[in-house]
Structures are given as structure tokens and as C-alpha cells.
């Protein structure tokens, strides 16, 4: 029985911190696979060069996606 998990993927693209949420059926998600999945799921990032990819598993249902893995300037 597979169970889907929600992950927050944070990364740097064009010197700007960004993040995307992905649903993945694995209990863990390594940064290399996360980068591939982000580029597949979000066409605007297909040709982008991502760096410093970080993965955070969202375990609580009420845990929002607005917790960046990278500092976002105001």
C-alpha cells in the first residue's frame, strides 16, 4: 500500500530563492530526484539551472507551504 507524502522543495534559480510543493509516494525524497520532479511538474523550470536544492517533508496537515528553506528578502 503506497501512501502519498507532501514535500516542500526549496531551491535557488537565477539568484532568487523559490520553492514548490510536490506530492510523492516515497517515504523520503532525495534532492536529486526532487530537482527532476520539479522540472517535470513545473514547465517554467524545465530549462532552469537549480542550485542548493533542499527537501522538507510536510508531516502535519495544517503545516503551510510558506516556510522557506532559503532566506527570502523582503
Automatic annotation (TrEMBL):
It comes from the Bacteria. Residues 50-74 are annotated as: Disordered. This is Uncharacterized protein.
